[in-house]
Amino acid sequence: MIVSTTTTAPVDLDADLLLLPFTEEPAPPLVDALASTLGAVVARAAGDFTAAEGDVRVAYPGHATAPRVALLGLGPAADLHRESLRIAAAAGSEAAREHEADTVVSLLPNEGELDDDVVAQGLVEGFVLGAYQYRAYKTDDAFDEPSSFLLRVREEHDAGAVEAGVQRGHRLAAAATTARDLVNRSPDDKTAEAFADLVVESGAEHGYDVDVWNEAQIRDEGMGGLLAVNRGSFDPPTFSVLEWGPDEVVNDRPVVVVGKGVMFDTGGLSLKNTKGSMDKMKSDMGGAAAVVGLFEALAALEVPLHVVGLVPATDNRPGRTAYVPGDVITMHSGATVEVMNTDAEGRLLLADALSYATDAYDPTLMIDVATLTGSCIAALGTQAAGGMASETDAAAERLYAIQRAGERTGERVHPLPMYEDYEQHLDSAVADVTNVGGRGAGAVTAGKFLEHFVGAPWLHLDVAGPAFLDESDAYRPKGGTGFGVRLLATYLENYVATRKQA
Prior knowledge:
The protein is α/β, with parallel strands linked by helices. It folds into two domains: 2-154, Leucine Aminopeptidase, subunit E, domain 1 (3-Layer(aba) Sandwich), CATH 3.40.220.10; 177-501, Aminopeptidase (3-Layer(aba) Sandwich). 38% of the residues lie in helices and 19% in strands. The chain contains 14 helices and 20 strands. Strands 7, 8, 9, 10, 11, 14, 15, 16 and 18 form a nine-stranded mixed beta sheet that branches. A six-stranded mixed beta sheet has the order 1-6-5-2-4-3, sandwiched between helices. It has a three-stranded mixed beta sheet with strand order 12-13-17, covered by helices on one side. The radius of gyration is 24 Å and the shape is globular. The model has no long low-confidence stretch (mean pLDDT 93).
């Protein structure tokens, strides 16, 4: 999809669909303006138009160049925010799909206190993300998405700011789309090696470095957790190292971002139920997908930060040599883990990667992102990720910063406690620690498990809920959502700004 700006007047635009986003307040002048420019048909449609957030009316003005006009509601002007812009634009993309509109033009609303670049970015993100469909395996010729989306810039707008917002929104949305595509890919096209090949292709296209370790290299590094999970698989594991580091950066030591890369999760010998559980487990590499999307965003936005991405990857299957409950694993750190449940496998991959990151990079910050626990879904649903960090003042500041970034991007993060009391749930009689706790607080005990392998400032994001949806929700589609890409890119940009001010 081509995304750009135009200065052409609405009545002269050669478009299949014209989007008019409005807040609730300007209803009377809106009707008059529409009547004079686009005709009585649109004005009558506006008469039934409340402009409440998500409200949509499609009209056929007849004499206008655009055969269809969609009125999009933004809610009260005083409450106009980034998310209301995304939701409205996503409704516009749905109208475009319904009417097979190839060229779509949107006006910018004049109401509200947001700057022009923020408004433009919100509309572009909402439209591009809302227009997304995964059609790699479809054989029909159904309408896919518009070929172009234009924002109309009027004299009262800052054209440079609008253009900057358009470009930023498009780059972030495109990066999130990459993550969606990776999650939605069929498991038989997504072994660890196949995924690593896709990462290499992404790096070559977008300008970041990629190094992929094979099984022998993983074994030499002593990654016992990753190797144990892989034992039941026919396909070998991989460990992908992504690196973004332009000539001028604000950090001497890198930020490391780790993504859980379980390509498909049967649960291993602790087998999952099929309906409502295993049938969604192609999504269990949503953290790895978010890391790839993040690196595309870092490169596109030219973020002046040295960042390393680590993706330990395998599937988790109950093959004849699979690891079993009761096994004791020696991890990369040298610590021993008693396996109590083979379906608590993702934390074993992450633990090895976090331990390796600590030793190899002495990072200034580590972040892991993972579809880790059903417990987090039970607690937060699909509307937010769980955020965890060690119980310190500095960790609380990191959690607050990631929350603020999430409020900007619409990818919410809710903090979960990491009290020392939870540590007892991981006690083992035969090893240093078990890989699962008791029945309660599963998301938290998973975080406490990872804490054993962390040797640097750290954030843990459990994205099990928002990374994959059963039904679409505004600009979040059914299937992979790309959750975390825009969140982490925004958080790291804010991190850069903070370092520059220090």
